[in-house]
Amino acid sequence: MKQTNFASKLEKLATSTLVSSLTGIQRGIEREALRIQPSGKIAKTPHPEGVGHPLTHSSITTDFSESLLEFITPVSTSAEQTLAQLRDLQKYTLTSMGDEMLWPMSMPCFIEDQQDIVLAQFGESNIGKMKTLYREGLKNRYGSMMQAIAGVHFNISFPESFWLALKESEQDDSQLQEYISNKYLGLIRNFKRELWMISYLFGASPALCSSFLQGKQSNLPFEKQGKGTLYLPHGTALRLGDLGYTNSEQSSLKVMYNSLTEYVAGLQRAIRCRSDLYEGIDDFRAQAPKQLNKNILQIENEFYSPIRPKRNAHKNETPTQALSRGGIEYIEIRALDVNPFSDTGISIEQIRFLDVFLAYCLLKDAPKMSWEEQQVSDQNLQAVISTGRDTNTELQRGEEKITIAQWGEDIFSGLAEVAELFDAAHDNTLYSDTVRDLATWVTNPEKTFSGKLVSSLRETGGDSAEQALDIAKRYKNEHLGAEYQYYSKADLDKQAAQSFEDEKAVLENDTLSFKAFLQDYFEKA
Known about the structure:
By secondary structure, this protein is α+β, with helices and mostly antiparallel strands. It has 17 helices and twelve strands. The protein has helices spanning 2-13, 16-21, 79-94, 126-142, 160-169, 176-193, 196-202, 260-270, 319-326, 348-363, 371-387, 404-426, 430-443, 449-460, 464-481, 489-508, 514-524; strands at 26-36, 60-62, 68-72, 101-102, 152-157, 207-209, 223-225, 229-231, 307-310, 330-336, 394-397, 400-403. Strand 11 and strand 12 form a beta hairpin. The longest helix is centred in the C-terminal third of the chain and has 23 residues, at 404-426. The chain is globular and about 65 Å long. The mean pLDDT is 94. Pathway: Sulfur metabolism; glutathione biosynthesis; glutathione from L-cysteine and L-glutamate: step 1/2. Its EC number is 6.3.2.2. InterPro entries: Gln_synth/guanido_kin_cat_dom (IPR014746), Glu_cys_ligase (IPR007370), Glut_cys_ligase (IPR006334). This is Glutamate--cysteine ligase.
């Protein structure tokens, strides 16, 4: 009955204006990748100088460490163009990396000691030093190993023509931006309810190198293979689990998504609330600071969430200040593992699926979500992370226990309806084809990314590192042997040179001492 109602609702919404507006969806991708030595160990060299300055280059920078590259595409309405840009950025960077390669997995390569993970350096400007000190804080709060994990962030926004058509069809009389923000928050709530599906389909971190644990014991039922590979036979995405990119201290924050005011207030509490856990770590006021401040979050970016509402910030504006000023502009999906089966870390099929899945989350009813419901959704995610490919695994949906296959069938029924809208907009069947294919993965767990990785691992009997190293070598050769598709080498050389000039300008414009700069920043935050 629920899906029948959803199909009926879609039929009413599917005006020609709304359908055609789907071609105007804007996307951007941020892909992280560790630099590795030919041996498969983490690279200890500085950020490749030839690609530009990491502080001011808009497309090639670093994340936590000097060895964790981040490639950022410009906003585009063409998914194919976005992937072409990503390939060019990776090719260009590889030409400045000597014999180093890009690790094609989310969980890190062999790391002998956490000291091998060198903090990212952004120069001597105040903002550059702030970025490095923030990472020093992350290191001292959570350890460097967690920060060596790589992921893919998918940013998406729907065009104004879409919002106007949707607003008219729903006969909503609120202000446009208020309407947009509320609909995006509804998308987020539904995404959180069914986030487990992303982990099931695209989780690609069922295994890790035992060096990641640094001798610590884990309660997870790992099986061991090769010299030091640990894996969960039915696991999907260790990156999203308790071993991965999480922060248990933040569970006390109770950040909610029922209104923009509520969300902003929750985050702002966190950046102002002192943490007993981090009280003993020297902050920026000390002679030798080890973190920015002693609050639960040093800055808002520290908040770990698989999905975030975003707005492009003005100069000296924090993320929540930008949201309060202008409302939600786009959504950032942070739940994607690096896809080892794609040279860009994300495939065109994934992008098409995400388009449909996020539109589905947006268009269906989105009841308010209590903190208890958020905890249930997280428990469902953890169940899928650990045993998602076990067909006996059950999830909690409302008052009922339900298998992944049963819930998945309901979800894909709705996705099929939404995919038809995208097909009509693009005058092809690519979206429906993708959804139809991925629907078979729900009843065939071996087709999922994690399923294929574990099958390959068991077939070889070796280590997951050997598997990854072979992929890294192949992708490097393919990138270096390919022609540029979107940029030219001259374009990228120009961007690199300009980034150094821009960094000099940032440094020259500093008028305060570093301590005074941070004091001023936190007073305004």
